[in-house]
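--- STAGE predict ---
source: upstream dedup step, 1 unique chain passed
mode: sequence only
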Amino acid sequence: MASLGFNRLISLLCLSPIVGFGGTLMGEFISRTTLHNPYANIPAQCYIETGGGTQNACMFCHTNAPARAHLGNNNPQAGLSTVTGNLQTTYSFAPVTQQTIAATINPWENTLYPERLEAAYQKSANRFDESTMLEYLKHDNWSDAYAKRGGKMGWDNGQDSSPWRLFPDLSPSDLPAKEDGFVRTQSKERAIFGDMTGWRAINFMPYGIFTPMSGSVSGIYIRLPKTFMQDEKGAWSEAIYAQNLDLLERVITDRLEANDPQTYYGKAHDVEVHRGIYPLYTEFAHPLHYVDLRAKGTRATRVKEIRYMVKTKMFYPGEAVEKDEDAPIYLNEKQGWINNGAGWLLAGFIEDAKGNLRPQKAEELMQCIGCHSDNYGFEPSAFTSGSSNTIDSTWAFPRKFPEKLGWAEMDYLAYTLKEGKATSNRGDPLNRKTQQGEFGYFLKHVVGANLYGVMPASMEAFLMETITKAHGFSDDWRALDLQHPETLVSQQRLHVKLMGECVDRKAYLTPEGFIQPSLLYPTEREALNGAIGYRKVVATQRFTLGKDVFAKTPFTFRYFRNAKEAYTHLDGRPYQIGEIITDRPVEKEAILTEGAGITETLIDEKDALYDGEYLPLLNDPLVYVKALK
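--- STAGE serialize ---
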């Protein structure tokens, strides 16, 4: 601990203060050992079993492609880095020597043991009437929080002592965005010029993280600094701003052409264009909504969280980098932000027990770094983590629908509710690299609705009705029989085969070529039950124990391995068939990798389910998978 104190002192002396419009943002370095869960950056999905290699949700986070291409990422995680290894094939959870517990212990109690959440909820003073849940979803809890931000307009409202300092300067009263995606306002206080707030909505191709099936849906908004909105003489120009945003789209989605400028337009002409990199002080606002099938895009009025990112230091993936899992975290809990170690400040606001938004605490903020981070080369080193499938620490913008379709409110594939039935009105766009439908590719590899590798009853019912010998498939789709674990892997292999047939035969599309709604949207009862379950996390404020809640422990968290592929508990005790997986063994002999996980996922690099080069970019111009006539 003495060396940690010295390193912290040196880091504080070296770190430049982060200057916003209202003054200096200064944080402090804290050791992750001070957190209840020092591995909050590792999400619950990373602990699932992959069914003897018959499910591969790992590839959608752990890949080499963006890093290999130097496209806003230098954190390869599918074997290209000898330090990180291959996170598709091994539950490695790299060791951190100063920690007292192993990262292979699953800390996400709410997800692993939903009955414990229920018990805590029953003891809570914040129990609620479940019959009023639909009204709860209609309540606007965003506006009250926005009113607390106060101060100046901009990315930093200037209230040094306020935890609302970095609440995004985006008012729900100005939403939805107009047809061109720009968020306009009637308020002079919120307008940068004319009626423009500077924010623009992004419509992107979703997959199994925030989807109606997962119980959470997004709105995504981007804003660039004022100089990007001005012409050469400093006059406000909507046309220049649109040009700069379109250029940035090509920068992030890797569509720059030889005749594209080397710098941005207008007054931002001195800002260089860097492939895969956002300019300094780019902002993202991310309201995360409950699912309400009665609402446009399934986005309920009530938000679960308001998330915010602002880029305060440039990040170049080609520079010499350092990945230090033992580095302290740089944050300011009082001001409500955390440094992601790759140039961005992250802030988040989540529901309190009564449903009002509150600033997130350090451990809650650290969860954000698990997805939004990278390896950085500047000094001093701060904790980094992150996925290898982000571009400059972001997910949504790289997956943006090209051009006009993507400059719009997030609509979850043009969702509508017709005569009480959820309907999709958009097809499956081709992935640029695989030239397969992005959604179909997800179904083939995950063989489920989400990154947990499970599916709701309504989705399984659709598959059972659709995938039958009578319809020309090689076999009938049957629900997994967990009572016969000796045949479970063979059952899952059959699922892989049948899901592949379903996608290849275009049975996952409607006759119009749209994605089947049963694969995208839950039933009203499933959506409501999901919202009720999550609200129990809200009522108990157990966010650090997991935000994803299921009616029962997902089967992908249970042990079904045969003797040949067996592993034990961390303390050497053997697992029993069907037992909930709470931990996995670690390396105890090797010096350099002591404490790292050693269990194989059984995903075979030679298998069709493996993809170490997945790149989350859509074809341009946009091409949809054609339905079979």
